[in-house]
Design goal:
The complex is a heterodimer of chains A (about 300) and B (about 350). With about 300 residues, chain A is an all-alpha fold. Chain A has helices at about 1-30, 40-50, 60-80, 100-105, 105-120, 120-155, 160-165, 170, 175-185, 200, 210-235, 245-265, 270-295. Chain A has one domain. In chain A, about 55% of the residues are buried. Chain B has helices at about 45-50, 60-65, 70-85, 90-120, 125-145, 165-190, 195-200, 205-210, 215-220, 255-275, 325-340, 345-355, 355-360; strands at about 5-10, 20-30, 30-40, 155, 160, 290-300, 305-315, 320-325. In chain B, α3 (about 70-85) runs antiparallel to α4 (about 90-120) and α5 packs antiparallel against α6. The longest helix of chain B is centred in the first third of the chain and has 29 residues, at about 90-120. The model of chain B has no long low-confidence stretch (mean pLDDT about 90). The chains are: A mainly alpha (about 300), B alpha+beta (about 350).
Chain lengths: ~300, ~350
């Protein structure tokens, strides 16, 4: 039964992830006064790539990188319950709490670094270096906010945190939410924190050397990971969800905000990203932590 | 290349510049410490074709194909050179219409550069906005010449199409809309914090280096070097249509962007003045003869000084057509600016130069 549930969770994340990616391309296009591609274009692209033969050869670690990233995305998804106050679609969340998820979130960049590092592509290596340099600054405000809400909920269990919110933490503790939201925009690879895969600078960075099946794997990983991160944010700050409709609504609103924000601002350079993340969101999150502790 | 550095190519095919030029950056971390440039990837043999394949009265159409962006400046430079050799005088109305097209061309070229710089700096929404508004210019060009690009409007003795009063009204309306858009962009480029992070203080060319490397066009004027061929020539009555020399002092991407916006503002003013005071008369004057002798003609293309050397021998075939394009003249300055900058800024710096390799690889 648990296997069936995990499979369903994976299918939902895969489908909704690609749907959101299609929406992202269309909504961004509208922001830019143009028509985007068909909604499911990215999904069809990934299927096409899965059917391609692999022609590059960079050694086993190059191929292991995307697999590690995919494993990280799937495992992260399984440890995040979709709904609160029910065991349906809770996956493996009863076997691991928020700490496990926070550890697993690092698995993606690690797989990326291992795979791309052996590829020898200077643009890929530059993208990974940028990503790893920025990682600490990106995580700090998020971790401060997460520590605060774990303390407020008295638990590290994600479904309990979601259930504990009579008022959404995003409304009750807005500073914590804002601090975490800046990190989240970066985690989603959105502008202004999209220096890792800047297309006009480093040809999409880490993805530049991958093609065929492995590029398809990266696209699928990105779709699943996007949905997993959205569900995590909904559980932590937006009071979780009680059904699919509520989950889709909340994740979509969050997603829409993230891509809208990305459309308004230009790309920061790596030092600018680190500087901004350490100064603004971290300060906001620390103030939020202090206020939450006092209240 | 030392062991601590990495060599990163920008071109010959790069997403930030879809033209055949290669800059090889030697980077320490992301800091550019040395630049090697190569511009010899394509050679179209246009100069040779002008003296062997085409008669002098058709070459205006050939040289317009050198570049899609400054086609009008190329055909105008060549045509004026032939008119000088044939000692023909054209009507004032034709001169005014030539300036009108030249300035419309400058506006759309500058807008393309601004949008491209924004795209390379990661402001894709801004890129699309400016490109969308650039359509206004394309429509105006189509209204006047019949074509959006590659308009063979200039001919020996004048221009090919007259402009009706209805078209004048349409142009005035569109120029008013464009003025509002440009004022908005000036406000954003001057005051937007996010834009200033990527443009202010980045990719600066000092006044001394602008002199040293013989920089021309907006690149030089953004560094405070006040050179503009429009101020020096007498083939077109620029002094009567409100031309004002624009310059900035920063020399960085921000200065180049704002200088281009200032120039667009002045070009709109020139266009409005032309429409207000368009003289009566013929649009074309018959000029007879075959070019004999040699001459040099200079015009201010959107990227700087464009020079044509034409030598005729009294027959329909010319002896020599030599074209000096602005981008080629600026390559040494480009290479110098990159040194010491972050690689992350390189695409935006490159776009702010507004290089035209189509002109260079003629």
């Amino acid at each position: 039964m648990i296997l069936l549930e995990l499979l369903l969770m994976l299918l939902v994340a895969y489908g909704v992830g690609f749907l959101y990616y299609g929406l992202y391309r269309n909504i961004t296009a509208r922001f830019q006064r143009r028509f985007g591609p068909p909604l499911w274009q990215s999904f069809f692209d990934s299927i096409k790539f899965f059917l391609k033969e692999e022609s590059t050869s960079h050694g086993w670690m190059f191929y292991l990188g995307p697999i590690i990233m995919m494993s990280g995305a799937i495992t992260t998804l399984f440890f995040i319950p979709f709904f609160k106050e029910t065991t349906n679609f809770s996956g493996l969340s009863s076997y691991g709490n928020l700490f496990v998820v926070l550890y697993l979130l690092v698995l993606g960049p690690l797989g990326n670094a291992l795979g791309v590092g052996t590829g020898g592509n200077p643009f890929g290596a530059m993208g990974v270096t940028r990503g790893l340099s920025r990682l600490f600054a990106l995580e700090l405000p998020f971790y401060i906010a997460v520590i605060a809400i774990m303390s407020l909920s008295g638990s590290a269990d994600i479904s309990e945190i979601a259930a504990h919110q009579s008022t959404m933490y995003a409304l009750a503790y807005p500073l914590l939410f804002i601090g975490a939201l800046f990190s989240f925009i970066g985690m989603m690879g959105q502008s202004p924190f999209d220096v890792v895969g800047a297309p006009v600078e480093v040809y999409s960075g880490p993805a530049s050397e991958f093609s065929g099946k492995f590029l398809a794997l990266l696209m699928s990983q990105s779709a699943i990971y996007t949905f997993a991160k959205l569900v995590l944010m909904v559980n932590l700050f937006l009071g979780g969800a009680q059904g699919f409709l509520e989950l889709l609504l909340k994740t979509f609103v969050l997603f829409l905000f993230v891509i809208s924000f990305g459309s308004l601002y230009g790309r920061f350079k790596t030092p600018q990203s680190i500087d901004f993340l350490l100064k603004v969101p971290t300060t906001i999150a620390v103030i939020g932590l202090i206020l939450a502790t006092w209240s | 290349m030392s062991k601590k550095t990495v060599e990163i190519p920008l071109g010959s095919q790069h997403i930030s510049l879809l033209e055949p030029v290669r800059f090889k950056f030697e980077c320490e971390n992301e800091k550019i410490i040395r630049v090697d440039s190569d511009v010899g990837f394509v050679h179209r043999g246009i100069e040779r074709a002008c003296t062997t394949k085409f008669k002098f009265d058709t070459i205006s159409t050939v040289v317009a194909r050198i570049c899609g962006l400054c086609a009008i400046t190329h055909s105008l430079s060549y045509t004026v050179a032939i008119e000088k050799l044939l000692e023909g005088e054209i009507s004032m109305k034709a001169k005014y219409l030539r300036i009108l097209l030249l300035e419309l061309d400058r506006i759309h070229s500058h807008m393309l550069c601004l949008s491209h710089t924004c795209e390379n700096a990661g402001f894709e929404a801004m890129f699309m906005r400016i490109m969308g508004d650039r359509e206004l210019i394309m429509e105006m060009q189509e209204l006047v010449t019949g074509n959006r690009v590659q308009f063979d409007f200039i001919t020996i003795g004048g221009v090919n199409r007259d402009i009706s009063s209805v078209k004048v009204q349409e142009l005035r309306k569109t120029l008013t809309v464009l003025t509002q858009k440009i004022e908005g962009y000036i406000e954003e480029f001057e005051n937007n914090w996010s834009l200033s992070l990527k443009f202010k203080g980045i990719g600066a060319l000092s006044l001394e280096n602008a002199y040293k490397f013989n920089a021309i066009g907006p690149l030089a004027r953004a560094s405070g070097l006040k050179i503009d061929v429009r101020n020096e020539i007498d083939y077109l009555p620029y002094d009567k249509v409100g031309f004002k020399m624009q310059s900035r002092s920063g020399g960085d991407i921000h200065a180049r962007n704002t200088l281009r916006l200032d120039e667009i503002r002045n070009s709109i003013e020139i266009c409005n003045n032309i429409l207000d005071g368009l003289p009566e008369g013929e649009i074309i004057t018959k000029i007879k003869g075959k070019p004999l002798g040699e001459t040099i003609v200079r015009f201010e293309a959107p990227r700087g000084e464009l020079m044509y050397y034409v030598k005729g021998n009294g027959s329909a075939m010319l002896d020599r057509v030599r074209i000096k394009t602005p981008t080629f003249a600026c390559i040494p300055a480009f290479s110098d600016i990159f040194v010491g900058q972050d690689y992350a800024d390189a695409p935006a710096i490159l776009a702010s130069f507004d290089p035209c390799l189509s002109c260079t690889a003629k």
